[in-house]
Structure formats: structure tokens, C-alpha cells
User: What shape does this take?
Amino acid sequence: MSTDARERLIFALDVPEPEMAYALIEQLSGHVGLFKVGLELFVRCGPAMIHHIREEARVGVFLDLKLHDIPATVERTMARIADLGVQFATVHCGESPEMLAAAVRGSGGQVGVLGVTVLTSVSADALRLAGFGDGSQSALTELVRQRAAIAKSAGVQGVVCSGLEAAALKADLGEDFLAVTPGIRPAEAAAAGDQQRVVTPGAAIAAGADYLVVGRPIRDARDPAAAADAISAEIAAAL
Ligand code: C5P
Assistant: This one.
């Protein structure tokens, strides 16, 4: 794992138009380790955006499409994702070990497959309403641990979880199993938006997170590069 704080920072390019993405890529190249392309931008721009980031900006890509389908479809889709030359791609881990194993097979060892345990926008109470647990934080953490263990057995490289669960996962599954944490809010950032399980950059790193995913606190800052640098400084202090 890199000790360079910037390498640990993944910026979520959550914008609707290619021009907005190009501007942020230009401002943030050299200030973040990877760019994450999610559903919004991928639906709008498709593989052309991945090629732009890799070839023009020369930065790695995390393609966050959160696959969730029958194993055959997931395997074939992950194989097409592998063709794009991205570094990481996501699959939900709430369904079946077969789906996760299919994602790993489809990756052909060319993409780091990450399992999404429980979205960081989901609270313990929302999970209870969906039929999981009793609404306590410990029941939520237990579910994340269970899903992450299944994901590891299926051969995925790591999971996406909140900083609140990273330490438990590292203890359960070992240092080499990646913990990628969204739901990051710098101490001075007031707005959590739709995120429920939020932690600061320093707390996520202290809990053992390998990568932090940050979107709005950088995207909506008056100076996105300065906001990214401030987060990297917090990461560096915690490393
Ligand atoms: O703007 P914000 O920092 O909340 O963005 C977080 C990003 O991480 C979004 O792109 C979101 O789709 C993604 N994400 C998440 N929780 C997960 C997996 C991905 O927030 N469990």
C-alpha cells in the first residue's frame, strides 16, 4: 500500500456532463490518486470517458457500476469492464457468493474487484426496515463483516465499507484485503448530504482504510484542488 497520501485519495467524478468532468480532471490531476466514474457519468459518456482519463490525464480509473445481476451476466459484464483497462470495479455483495465469484472470473485478474457491503448512505434503522438486523449499529457492522467474509472467500480483492467498519474488517480478514471507504467528510465540511455513516479522512485512515472515496466535499469546494490537498494532508498526518 502506497505511503503517498495522494495515492490513497479517490475522487468521485459525480457530474452529469463531459465538459464538467474534463474541467475537474484537469484541476485535480496530480492531486488525487484515482478518478472514480459512477453510473451518472458512465451512462452519459460511456467508455470514452474512461479512455480520456487513462490516456489524456494518465490517471487510473475506478469504475463504480455496482453490478448486481445473475452470475452469467455479471461475469460477462466484468469481462467487458476488464477490456476498458480500469484499476477497480464494484459488485454488490448482498446477493450470493456465486455472483461474486462470477465477477472475479470475469475480471480475468485484470481488474481489482471490490464488493459493496452496505452502502454508506444506509443507516442501521433503514437496514432494519429492509429486514436486516435490529436497527443497532452492531447489527449493521455484523452484516458488513458477514458480507465481507463471503466476498473474500469468493476471491474479491477488497470491499467498499464505511470508515466505521474498516477496523473490524481488517481484524477479521487481514491487512491485504482492501478497505475502500466512501462517506468521508472533512471535519469542517458541514453537509453530509445523503450519507449516513460518515467519518473524517483521518479517522478512516486510522481505522485501516486503504483508499478514501471523496466526491462532494471536493467537487463542491470553491477550490477543488485545495480541498483535495487538505484531505491528503489529513491522510498523511494519520498514516
Ligand atoms: O459525495 P460523496 O463524497 O458522498 O460521494 C461518495 C461516492 O462514493 C459516490 O460516488 C457514491 O456513489 C460512492 N459510494 C458510496 N457508498 C458506497 C459505495 C460507493 O457513497 N458504499
Notes: The CA atoms of residues 172 and 211 lie 18 Å apart. The beta strands are 9-12, 34-38, 60-67, 88-92, 112-116, 158-160, 178-181, 211-214. The chain has a mean pLDDT of 94.
